[in-house]
Amino acid sequence: MKRKCLSMLFAVVLCLSLAVGAFAASGADIYDEADLLSSQEEIQLAEKLSETGKEFDAQLVVMTVYSVNGNPDAYIEEIFDSMNMGYGENRDGVLLLVCMQDREYRILSNGYAGEAIGPSQINAIGDAIVSDLSDGAYADAFSDFADQCAYYLDGHLNGFPFPVGKNLIVALIVGIAAGIAVALVLKKQLKSVRQQKQANVYIKNGSMQITTRRDLFLYREVSRTKKESSKSSGSGSSRSVGGGKF
Amino acid sequence: MAVLQEFKCPCCDGAIEFDSTLQKMKCPYCDSEFEMETLQAYDAELNGQPSENMSWDTAAGGQWQEGETEDLRIYTCNTCGGEIVADETTGASECPFCGNPVIMTGQFAGALKPDLVIPFKVDKNAAVAALQNHYKGKRLLPKVFKDENHIREVKGLYVPVWLFDTDADALVRYRATRTRSWSDSQYNYTETQHFSVTRGGGIGFENVPVDGSTKMDDTLMESIEPFNISDGVDFQTAYLSGYLADKYDVDAAASIERANARIKKSTEEAFASTVQGYSSVVPASTNIHLQNGRARYALYPVWILNTQWNGQKFTFGINGQTGKIAGDLPMDKQAFRTWLFGVAGVAAAAVFVLSYLLWLL
Asked: Is the model more confident about B155 or about A12?
């Protein structure tokens, strides 16, 4: 009897610990409901997401689903909120949602991660992962997602590295333009023979008399161009959502 | 029932028709609509323009007194065919246009006597200084050119010039536009109003010069303008002493075209300055009627230097009255490249360093 009790207790403890283990493994950072990853990939990715998340104090979550009911933008917010994702009081975190039926992906950033990864950063992350998603290289795409998030979060916390390439191109363009301008100005100095188009200096002083003045209105043209609509998103709130098709 | 009218659309020049539903004239090509009165007035503008008349009395120059040209000799360049005049005491050994030797071909005869001459005011030293100054600060001028030059050989030359005086009666029609912009919540609008603007009146020109020598580059002569005619005096052969003179080989009648072009352009601009309150003004047609047009024959003082470099000929002219200099200089291609890439490199480095410093802030 005693033995039976002990074995039952052991079984309960085992079940509990397994459940907690399972929750920790799949519940924390990766939900592969669409089964896009092998278990090996899943383990590696979970580790990467968790390590990166801890490094920057923002939970990075990847979720794949077959379908969403309705609007993916609303769905990702609902998921993020209902599952109480994100670290800390402000729930700092980034969620990547991949929906296979519509071939849509969405990225939601919240808390300080929402400030670090705004709409333009979400677009940049989307651009970085969309080709891998299209090619079916999901593990690569999710790994890139983690790297990109790390880049922007690190940049937000510690400052971005000096963008050498971009500045070099700008400097070269400005330099060449300045070189051409200076060389042309110097070249123009050599030319002093020019035809005179007018004879203004030979007009007799005060000789001009206007006797006929007629200003006749002919017609009017009206053209219209559509205004650029300037949508401002992320107005003060520290949450951004964006994405697209793959 | 639509009634056809013979009018042209001011907008596209297409035949325009009366649209009975609009009770307006409507162009079938560009859909512009006009009031009937507008078109009638516009048509009257077009048809009312007088024909252009730019004729001149070109009887310029006088006859020589007997014995007046006795001391004048004519020299001919065998290389370029230039004919110059110098007095007996001055003589001439080199052609001022090409630098080759000239030979005396005889006593000066024929041609017209100039009505007036502007005597030299700038002496040879000042002319040499002006040339040296002209070379200064020109970074792309080949060094060899500066070293090899023979600035001292600058020659004083009286250049024959036709001077045209006239009173112009002009009727100029401009196409003018006025634009305004506004916007509502969805669109930005731009409205362009088109006008036909007419200005008529008179304007006087005096002493518009045209180079009367084919050997002397017309554009170079125009580049060293203006000469101040108030210093002009009646011609005396004594003024030629120490200087060379070029004989005119383009007569007044042949020079008018150039004077007319400049007078026309100036008239358009002067009248356009009275067309105000528009955002753009473009001359559409100009009719000029010239009256009291007369030409005079004058000699203008010019210091001239001809030089060869790398097989190319370079001519410099200095206004003998004001010292104004003109003359295109050759370019050192290597120096051009050095400056181009040098400045580009330095500027690029500066911008890069600056962007890094801004980034550090």
From this structure: B155
Residues in chain A: 246
* Token representation of residue B171: 């009727």
Inter-chain contact A207–B203, Cβ cutoff 8 Å?
A: yes
Q: Give A221's contacts in chain B (Cβ within 8 Å).
A: 32, 191-192, 194
- Does residue A89 sit in helix, strand or coil? coil
B222/A contact by beta carbon, under 8 A:
yes
Type of residue found at B321: Q
Give the pLDDT confidence score for residue B213 in this predicted structure: 86
A162 CB neighbours in chain B (<8 A) are 356, 359
For position A7, what pLDDT does the model report? Answer: 54
ipTM of model? 0.72
- pLDDT-based confidence at B344, cuts 50/70/90? very high
In this complex, how many residue pairs, one in chain A and one in chain B, have their CB atoms less than 8 Å apart? 225
- For B138, which of A179, A189, A215 is closest by C-beta distance? A189
> Would you call B196 an interface residue with chain A, using a CB distance cutoff of 8 Å?
yes
Per-residue pLDDT at A240: 87
Q: Distance between CA B342 and CA B303 in Å, rounded?
A: 38
CA distance A79 to A100: 17
- Work out the number of other CB atoms within 10 angstroms of the CB of residue A115: 18
**How much is the average pLDDT of A90-105?**
91
What pLDDT shows up at residue A229? 53
**Contact status of A40 with chain B (Cβ, < 8 Å):** no
Closest residue to A190, CB basis, from B141, B199, B265 = B141
Contact assignment for B199 to A212 by CB distance below 8 Å? yes
Closest CA–CA distance from residue A153 to any residue of chain B (Å): 18
Residue B277: closest CA among chain A residues belongs to which residue? A215
Q: Is residue A125 classed exposed, middle or buried when 0-12, 13-18 and 19+ CB atoms within 10 A define those classes? A: buried
